[in-house]
């Protein structure tokens, strides 16, 4: 099943190379490679725009899906992911803050500040969960959405007062149209974080069973929780800085994979990463073609699809509880 999925995603990646406003076809590319008199525009477009965009789509999709899976394990709730607990909103607030206070700071440093804000926002969400009696699993995502709404409102107010609403819109809406060579390479950090998550998969599986059970098995529960939070925060910061927020992706993919494969993290992680990459790639292709030659941001397409699935999961859970 994993091999078939990889082939499908690879085929979608090839299709992505030739979809766009610019005139790039396999025949034209072959002619550019074989004809010494060709001006090389086709090859330049492929290497500067189409390949970076496709790679960025795959990296961001896989990393956000894995971050969502880790978040669900740490919180022990299937209805959370970075965009429903205030993590991505906190990252956006961090970028806005550093843009106001230190606009000349290098991009990696801005990413670091965004990661710290994302970590603080996630920690605040977990602290609120400890203080609020949770009588239903549905309360957890509601708390996260309210917290994210408060942080987003503060961010929007500050951006409005400082004439940065346009910049904030770029960070708050996932969009790959501006991805070019030299502007996406930070996403390779998320590939490394995804690998770290896979190597620590067994630890996350045990941690998901609770602190008491994990401690009895000799697992450093707090260290594992900290590792998971750092991975989620860094992934959220890098993706927000590079392409913007992709909502609900980390909720949809892990839940679908869990229904099909199970809950063992080491077994499901490759499926989650592949599913996230494939889903974002499909949504990006839809966004590029549905209003051709204009584009619909991938964050909008994923958000609509994710919202529908999120509501379905909530209603499905509610009907079971009834």
Task: Provide an overview of this structure.
With 322 residues, this protein is mainly alpha-helical. The chain has one domain (58-321): ABC transporter involved in vitamin B12 uptake, BtuC, CATH 1.10.3470.10. Helices cover 74% and strands 0% of the residues. It is built from 14 helices and no strands. The protein has helices at 2-17, 26-34, 41-75, 87-101, 107-131, 139-161, 165-172, 188-199, 201-207, 211-216, 221-242, 249-260, 265-289, 298-321. α2 crosses α3 (41-75) and α3 packs antiparallel against α11 (221-242). It is globular, with a radius of gyration of 20 Å. The two termini are 35 Å apart. The mean pLDDT is 86.
Approximate helicity band? over 70%
Element-by-element helix/strand order: HHHHHHHHHHHHHH
What structural category arises from helix and sheet content?
mainly alpha
Number of strands: 0
**Any idea what the CATH superfamily is called?**
ABC transporter involved in vitamin B12 uptake, BtuC
- Low-confidence spans: pLDDT under 50, at least 5 residues? none
- Could you give the distance between the termini? 35 Å
* Radius of gyration, whole Å: 20 Å
- What is the CATH top level name? Mainly Alpha
**What's the shape?**
globular
Whole-number mean pLDDT: 86
Topology:
Elements: H1 2-17, H2 26-34, H3 41-75, H4 87-101, H5 107-131, H6 139-161, H7 165-172, H8 188-199, H9 201-207, H10 211-216, H11 221-242, H12 249-260, H13 265-289, H14 298-321
Notable traits:
mainly alpha, 322 residues, globular, ABC transporter involved in vitamin B12 uptake, BtuC
